[in-house]
Fold each of these.
Amino acid sequence: MKPPRFTAWLALGLLPFSLCAEEAPALQMPEATATEAEPSESSAPPLEEVSLDMQFTIEEQPLVEQVAPVEESAPAPQEEDEVLSTEPLTTSLPADLPGLFAERMKTIVMLEIFVQSETERARYLATGLVLDDEGTIAISGDALSMQFPPDWLRDIRLYIPDEDNDGYPATYIGANISTDVHYLRADKAVLEKLKPITSFEHAKARVGETLWGLGLGSEDTLFNPRLMASVLSVLGKYHLDYGFTLEPAAVVGAPIFNAKGQWVGLGVPSGGSAYLMMLQNRSHVVKLAKMGETDSFLDAGDFLKNVLPVVDKPEGVTGGWMGITDLQPLSRQVSLYFGLEKQGALVISEVVKNSPADKAELRSKDIITAVNGQPLKKVVPSALLPLWFNIYMADKKPKDTLTLSVLREEQPQVLSITLGKYPLLERNAPRQYLPRLGFTLREMTVHDGIVHRLFDAKIKGVVASFVKPNAPASNAEMKTLDRIMEIDGTEVTDYAQALELLEKIDKDLQKREAVLMIHRGTDTKVLHLQLN
């Protein structure tokens, strides 16, 4: 059994870890798309009517380098075995289920959020989980991208399942970038209809136990409450604890309970089932998963530890920043060479210049073996070790000092690093849409620099964060994340200067052409924008 797609509640389980303590930049930032994610009906329709989420699975093997063995390090401390409950296993639903179900349905709502981008207004629906008596509600970054600037989020409405009305107002209050969770607050008028999930006792689920969860119908049925149930098939201890049921037991974002009504987990996107697809006489392994419903859940205890406390800063919060990119676990063979088979170890791909890691004299290809004297946890499969490390680092703050034990060219070293303030995030970067030119100018971030293979914390510049189709910029073959180097022969120095130059061009109706020199990957191009 593989862990689920880590796309909700903990981006700790989603991000590529290019900047290890926090949200990491992907090598290419896709443009946001507006897909309206409505919950699935609890009763499965015929196969041909189901929308299938298909993913081709490609497994990459880490590069194995020939290295000499070093002195054996101390093994990672072993976690204490959990004490198994001696209570009889409950394999049926409780007789008082209707009452339990009605009370626990108050813990979830449906959120409607409109996202106003440069040229489009898109509608998103997401299941929200009530966290406290103040009406704080959490939704995942899987349902609403963390890349959206806070001022793009408009006209938020909250719907109580089975109520026939226009909903209630809600306010966006913040985001935790590390855990990939948005926080909203319900209007006071609806508080009496809500009940926080934290008011229920939580427990550990057991394999073979019958569990039940909450579902929501479609918008046409007023998001009517649905009971879902299944048997716990597997408990997986990965970077966090996850459970897997035989059939979908809840919708994504909704809680799951045991027969006593104790909260055992929160539905996360399913890993799906593997199937073999034949295309042009070639076979491909694909994953199929039901939309909305899930057979995977995050342990309630891990949810409480990693999602609370609530964040009330719209720009989002981040922890301390190291400035190292793309951590990779050692393969089993290399771990054996180094005598690290009983613990975890991570290889640093790149160190960002002028970052805390650079000042601490960390280097590319250093192997991190311990933090503050504690060996890294052994995680199975090892590909999930960066996720565990990101979770470990998530609560660290700027100015916190850590000691890192590393292996460098087979020699052990201990380095001290003082974490810094996390660099500017894309969601908070200044930007301006230029309608006549047909693109959005945005201040360059460290993440953008890494995309361009420019590893420098003090990087300055501007990029095109959005290119409108069939506009002068797109007709000149400008691409998203192109770095603008010159504007009509004038070298770009910073965002304010570039914006002043481009706004002058955008407003000059007599000007028929703008010439931009851009940097893309390893190429430099000159673009001629023909203006209307």
Note: Residues 6 and 13 are 5 Å apart (CA to CA).
Amino acid sequence: MRGRAVIPLNWAPLRGHSSGIAQVELDNARVRVIEDGVVVIEGGKIIQAGNYADVVAAARDRGYDQDRTSGGLDLTSSGDLDPTSSDGPSSSTPPHSDTRSDQLLQAVLDARTWNGLILPGLVDIHCHGGGGQSFPDAKTTSQAMTAIKEHRQFGTTTLVASLVTDTAETLLRQTKLLTELCTEGELDGIHLEGPFLSVHRAGAQDPAKMLTPNPGLVYRVAKAAKGWFTAMTLAPELAGVVSPLSPVGATSQASDKDDADPQDSRTGAGNVVDGIGQTCFLDDLDTAVQANLEHDFGIAVERGETASVIAALVAHGVVPSFGHTDCSASQMAKAVGFTNFLFELAEGAGARSATATHLFNGMRPIHHRDPGPAMEALAQAAAGEMVAELIADGVHIAADMVRDVFQTAGADNVALVTDAMAAAGMADGQYQLGPMAVTVADGAARLTGQDSLAGGTAHLIETVRFAWRDCGVPLSQAVTAASLTPARVLGRVQTIGALAPGRDADLLLVDNDLNPVEVYRKGLRLQTTPDGPTV
């Protein structure tokens, strides 16, 4: 936003110069830039955001007028926040005795100047670590917190922790550890990148530990995560992802042994479902809906423990994210359509949709006679049917391609992610990403002794800067892709991702080159040092 941010009643207020900063605000599920804007914060929430003159006028009128400010709120003398109509403040509010409105007006008028940009707190939905620690390898919550703090001090106020392909035992152990931090409010979800991936597009994933897709592991992880299982990356061409595996009851040929044949893990029958959470909403499908599924997607709907992996994920509110895949365009389209159909059944209007894990990376390259998964994922994103992750760090994708993706799909359907591993914020050297050894040289992480990229080393604000400065993406669009769009992926647009009334008071104050200077999370300002914010 370009303008002023006011934090009244409980801190020294803040105000930017009128020619300064760009504010991004939610406006009918889209963003817009407000010149000379103001953000009003109290009690960890944004209670108003809009044009400075309008907010001042509303405060002087003893209430917020919805005709003049977005999502107006009436600050009543009781301290409650109540919606008002365009007729002005609630009739129960005495016109000249609103102490809170007086306090608010004075805070706005006395706000200190901020000579920079005010952005919503950033939202990273794909991050493996930073600060020398990684989520797949953390042995304690303290180690995991090091990675969280590394990104938080650079303005990522909402963070999803990503794991990598590993044994079921390891994935469950790490899920339980990270769930502790989710329940404490430090993390905002857990993403499993694997183990149901293509050995042909393994990237930095360990092909020896990839497993046959089966709903049993989904149920076990969902139970361990206690509602914090956010997303799972999987390859849609694998048997069991879209259509159920049959017969159920046989043990997968994949094992946890180091000498397991990775190709065998693609062809074995489904793992035994161990009785944990075997039912999902598909059990309640009526005949007409089942017939629709079978007609539109060619899927023979199975129930309970024989449900497909996608069905099991959606049943637990987990977003299927398609990546590390060698699938065809039609296989990608079928998986996206099936996912979105089930989400609409489960969540109704405004339901979430499928996502694409780091578009282009870990996918078969595009060919004009064989477009493959990446081109179809981009087309689905352009149609508003999925959100495409993009690692805009100057290493994973060329600047021109980043620009083209934004122009094709639009910022509403692109989520900037870091895919960061332990080396984010650290020097070049040797690191670990789950079972894989990684060498970082010149800021690029690759599997040791190989050419495969092994995650990123950037902070999310750096991807915003790269998209804006190097790729020609408008700033408001780059910020949208790092805040509001990923918030929608998480189903949390009403609480995070925008400078708008009712959202958490997550703010990132940067200079005009997007260098972080101050970070607020849920209204609390992080401590700062001469080198920038710290936790």
Note: The radius of gyration is 24 Å.
Amino acid sequence: MFNKLERISSLYYLAPLFFIILACIWAYAPGLQGGYYFDDPANIVENNLLHIDSLQPAELWQAMWSGQASHLKRPVSMLTFAINYYYFGLDPGAMKIVNLLIHIFNGLALLYLIRIFIKNSAQKYQEPKLLAITSLVVVACWLLHPINLTSVLYVVQRMTSLAALFTILSILCYSLGRQAQLNSSGNWMLILIACPFFGLIALLCKENAVLIPYFILCIELFIFKFCATSKSAQNTIKALVLLSVTIPIALLIAYFTINAGTLAAWHAPRDFTMNERLLTEARVLVWYMQMIVAPNISSMGLLIDEFQLSTSLFQPLSTFLSILFITSLIGTAYVCRKTLPLLSLGISWFFAGHLLESTFIPLELVFEHRNYLPSVGIILAVVALLDFAFKFIQRFKMLRIILPAFWIIAFSFATHGRAEHWESPLSLALIDVENHPTSSRTNVMAGLVYTQAALNAKSENDKLAYAEQADKYFLTAIELDKTGFSSSIGRIVILYLLNKPIEIEYFDTLVDNLENGRVGPSTQSSLLSLIECNIERVCKLPEKYLVSLIEAVLRNPLLPTKDKGSLMVQLGRYYAESLANLDKAEELVKEAIKMDKSTIRYRLPLANWQILNGKYEEAQIQLNIMKQLDTLNMNAYDISKWESFLNDRRKNNNS
């Protein structure tokens, strides 16, 4: 397909690639032995279904479907976590090393893809050396860019990088097929089979793979331009792209038409409306672009919540200016589609990559990892623009080498510096508080890290010192956001550790706010962690405080049904495992089952407690119901395990 001088194995690629990969390993090395952060514990550390003892198909299958991040469960990502656990246990270093390898593989696949874009664009380079340099600069910048760090060192974001890997492979297959069509009769197998195959795997890693058709549309508009060797092939390509782009939109419209009120329900736990989110995201997108072109690591962070909410087009004024800037960029992409197609592709690629996570879905407003694939577009656009400019600045040829080299070196050191902050949960929490002192959530994270240190302290003096630090951060968080509950919940634990009385008025106010205020995902996560901490007998919070907090949230009318069920089951675990009150535990889980009779994960603990309580017939009924519900055998391993436990108990009772 390519002549000898142009092959990917050419020395033009191998030697620079070797040093780029070494630089990538060096940049990330300080953070590879760091701990688990934010959502990592809930998804990996506390997810017992991932902690497999063998590679038996039934156990692997169950681990695959143990994800709770979405309706699709992200089974391919969960499978990789389970295999990681089987070979290396819960060592976070092993998890992060695999993440880094995925990141490097993504860079190699991107190199091949970018090379195809350049070869088939109006800015194509006939000279292999120039083609290699340009594509290597784009990939080196992307591999070493600090904005991609969270997709590597934040373990659970393997979901993002793994989905990106199969997304790139899907687009690569499509692009190779289209390139073949421009040169001969084409390769429909790559387009019709390989592209959808890798796309499906990507979708089973994370849902943003649904954007593959929109990336392909951008490629067609600015690179291949729907050209083909025959009219029939051209019409077929147009029909395929049109269908792949419109079908997801049609399905989305149909879903929200049938399920009227769903969007409003999704936004209910959030402190912003859909309109406010859409307006704010315009400013967020501009901030992302700023961080990609000229990253400032002191502005970055795991949690970024200082963004002022946009309440109208002109409040704040930067909302209107951001929308104007975005509109001008899209206009530029259109105007330059013939003269600078790589610039147009890069701009459109960035916005296509944000269609899902930066629009109407009520996710957190800002997360760096959302730029993992979209950032490729901005980097490509800048490189294409610089390359175009250098053609008119013949007197300063050295700039063609100096500027890209400066960019790559700067990114390397910035990523290395950020990775040093990720050496431990404590170092990350402290640097994030230093960089974002007015962020309530970064102060909460610092408080939680010190709380964990206090709980693990070996001496009373250390415990008190850590607890005092935690209390300081929780108080700051409360002052910054009086409607946030995570800080208040954490402070109750700290007051107990410090042997300080929990003021009745303070506690009653918290209970009232939990019962009537907005209870977001972070509050629910804090309560679930609090219950788990007491079940493990680490926190040892008095029953009256813990139960009052949970029951207050359960009475909240804004709490979604599925979240209410999860809290009830977890509270049931507390009654069963900490208070040995199996009857109360059973009562709570039965209430949760009434809310969602199709959820197997509610019935598993119920069957367990019924067996322990000697209610063998009732437990057998639950196991039989689970078998009927488990049509895909996602829970077959656990059901079989509890059936064996039930039979053993019966035998012991009869003997």
Note: Residues 92-119 form the longest helix (28 residues).
Amino acid sequence: MKNILALISCIFISVGCLLLPFALEAQVDPAKKGIELQPLEKGNLSNKPKTGNNNTNMPPPDGEGMDSDTTKTAQSAADTLGFGPHTTTFLRETDVLYSINRSYNPDTSLYLFHRYNAVELNDFMSQDLGNLGMATRPIFYDAPDMIGTRLGLSVFDHYMRTPEDVRYFRTLSPFTEIEFSQGGNGRSDLKVSFSRNVNSRFNVAMAYERRSANRLIGGLSRRNDPSLTGQAIELSTRYISKNKRYKLLTTLLFNDHSVTESGGLTADIEVPEGQSFLDSMVQLDDTRLGFKLSEAESRQIRRTAHFYQQYALNRRENIALFHVFDYSSQDNYFTDRNFSQNQGFYDSVYFDPANSSISQARFATWRVLDNKAGFKGKAGNFRYNTYMRYRIYDYGANFIVDSLQSAVRLAKGDPQVSLDTAVSIPLNNELFVGGALRYFLPNNGVAEISGEYMTEGAYRAEAYWRTGRLQLRYKRSHYLPSAVVRSFWGNHHRWQNEFENTTADRIEAAYGFNPLPYLSVSPFMQIDNVQNLVYFDSAQQAAQAKSSLQMFRIGTQAAAQYGYWNAKLKLMYNHREGEDVWRMPTLFTNLLITYDRMLFDSVMEAQFGVDFHYHSRYQANAYSPASNQFYLQNDERVGGFPLATLFFNFKVKRVLLSLRMWNVLQGVTAANFYDTPFYIAQPRAFEIRINWLFFD
């Protein structure tokens, strides 16, 4: 009863916080205009594709912090040049939270436009199952941002839209963006987004995405044999009051992602002595390969309602109150409609196979109500924020055998139907306090400290310094194990665990310099020390490391330009000490070479290039469809294949087009390769991608 009252109280407080600023709006004076400094860089030392053309303005540091009134200037440009990317801007919620007056224009750059799948977009620092929309995992360890309880089912995270991804627009004319990617073997990805301002202070936007792909067997796909059906819907608004004191960002998200689980490839072959099973399989004709599973499916559905609002207490936003409300739900399903034939694939079966032909489970349901409120502000070159956060979450799981038959028999009280079909973690409350202090140094430098503490003993602390050519970062996280590793209840995997919190320390350093006028080099290093790491062992069970492990990464990033030629290189050496529970390739490299110039009397901007990736062979994790988890395996080594893509990107007016040939070295250096055991990499294919912007 107390939990229900806490939930109801939390909802009423959230609604009250949303409505209160509207009542106060007319009682304050308009804020002055202003512009802001660069934000703190977050994340690993890696190159990531741009999400828009950065339109950051530099000091003076005093000011409004989000929406300087540039409408007249933009309108003048529109009258002169017409509507276009220069009259459409968007911002990110993170910039608003840190009072950074940074906006972006729709991205019209050709840089990395040819990349669109999950592994490419993470700079090849992930492994996947070789096809669009399939499960992915990071190759290198990174502590989670959430120190409290997470669900722990993340293999489809790349394909799910989140509030952090939302673009909050401001437009002078209706803006429509259409993006379409069509690959070999039935892969396609369609994205459509639309935004327009209702008035100068209120914008509404919507987006829709649909992905599909066919199953791959070796180098071929089968028509009418889908491996992926996914869609996402996004609705968002951006509002600023007339006096510019109150700002509101809202988002509603729906994600539905369904994949056919093949279980990987198999073949009835004799393996030559001294050769691995995968090395033998990669040389086989497609007709000799088969799938381990048939008619099996994983499905994940997510729903999110997200609101960010802030209210300034003085004219220059030196002090502002902010509130973030978030409600999210996630349902995870695994269904094997041909269980009677697939039964040999599973290590365990937790029901009577004689009475069922279908294995069906909703093995995780997740509900979170999250409220964060605090104050933030600025004083000279200082920026600060502090907050209190309250979360309520609910986790449960159940399985159904032959769902229709068993439901009827259970309703009739059939004693042969087990009632032990569900497990749940009761409603839980989590309380956090945290904050950050940032100071802007001369020459675009920055120093920041931030931290968060949770009442159950979890915490994180981070310090960052960037000045001149040097960047330094130290981060320590002490975080809770996820709900899934503590308790899982499926048809083929079950466990109950009491794990200790994981502690992770990270040190990063990078230094950039220019040894030659056309060459820039940035060597870097990263050291991780992790205690009590939770992982999935070779028996596909959640486990916790008994001793600490250390992971070292050293490397360099370099960029060169000579005439029309451009090259970017990332080279890394990786090493691990301690318990063998996180495996990664020793060598890792990316190389991008492009030839960029204007063609046809400067009508077309063109880019020819090759995108190259290589990592050494290592024992990559295998994948379990029934639990949606990657786990340790000790039999097969993958990688060691040079993956190369030839591409031609060009832009004519507001249309970007990419033509590419993926995996051009297949059949040259080797027949192909596996990036995850028994899941062959995407074969050579011609692919096309187009992005078209409309401003009327």
Note: DSSP finds eight helices and 39 strands in the chain.
